[in-house]
Amino acid sequence: MEKDHRHEIIENIDQYRIGIDDIFAFKCRECGKCCRNREDILLNSRDVYNIATALDMTNKQIIEAYCEVYIGKDSRIPIVRLLPKGPNRNCPLLKGDRCLVHAQNPALKPTVCALFPLGRVVASEHASEHASEDMGFGNPYEVQYILNHIGCGSLKRKQTVRAWLENYNIPTDDQFFIKWNEALFKIVTAIQRYDGKDGVTDKAMEMLWGAIFASLYADYDTHQDFHQQFENNIFKLLRVFDGLMKMF
Q1: What is the rounded end-to-end Cα distance, in angstroms, of the chain?
Q2: CA distance 248 to 233
Q3: C-beta separation of 83 from 92 below 8 A
Q4: pLDDT digits (tens, 9 = 90+) for 191-214
Q5: Given CB 3.0 to 4.6 Å as the disulfide criterion, which of 47, 139, 176, 246 pairs with 110?
Q6: Nearest to 75 by CA among 194, 241, 200
Q7: 77 CB contacts (<8 Å, ≥6 apart)?
């Protein structure tokens, strides 16, 4: 498994930050190197929905076929990651040197893959911390971009961050990304208060984890608008937590 640089980046964010109209040099050789020896590709709900759309499957089928679900050690919520395969720890969506989803529609690739070598964080003028793909802090929110370590490809093509995002139909100020981080922050805060309380049984936690998993990842219909489904699911889930907090 490659070293996870996310904590280093968060701690030294100013060294990695890049402006939306700044220029960086990178050209993908489509060698598949960034899809091997990776165990850190976490998916959000839109990623799962997009992959399901590209491969004509349901969200649940995608998760069962290509992913691993586990409870985060610190967050205590279900997390979905692409489960690597074989001795080279290949991404399960890699066929030869090409991504199955990219071959169908590059705009439907997991966001972290489409962004590479860029990354992004959610930050706030009033926040003391910055966030990775799976946590947000502070209000108002702002999407900021970073340039990761580049260990593949070439430097023969230059482009702005804005142009790179446009290639994959990623909004510069991605409101879903902001809402996703905001929702996770609320869910993590609530479940950390609930987990371990007197009277909270293992069965109760399993039921709660099941509800979180369904709302964040599983209960989506690819024939309906994703964003409305996401907002409805989060609204219902947060109402469940409101009720639980009144009990404890």
Answers
A1: 41
A2: 23
A3: yes
A4: 888 877 777 788 888 999 999 999
A5: 47
A6: 194
A7: 71, 184, 187, 188, 191, 209, 212, 216
**Rounded Cα gap, residues 96 and 103, in angstroms:** 12
Sign of the C-alpha dihedral computed for residues 173, 176, 181 and 182 taken in this order? positive
Question: In this structure, are residues 108 and 101 in contact, taking their beta carbons and an 8 Å threshold?
Answer: yes
At residue 12, the pLDDT reads: 64
Provide Rg for the chain, Cα atoms. Answer: 18
Kindly give, in sequence order, each residue whose CB lies less than 8 Å from that of residue 56, ignoring residues fewer than 6 positions away: none
What's this model's pTM, rounded to 2 decimal places? Answer: 0.86
User: Is it the case that residue 225 has pLDDT exceeding 50?
Assistant: yes
In the 8-state DSSP scheme, what is residue 29?
-
Structural domain boundaries in the chain: 1-248
Which has the closest alpha carbon to 92: 134, 41, 54, 28? 41
What is the residue-wise DSSP string for 79-91?
EEEE--BTTTTB-
Cβ atoms of 42 and 81 closer than 8 Å: yes
Contact indicator for 78, 209 with CB cutoff of 8 Å: yes
CB 242 within 8 A of CB 190: no
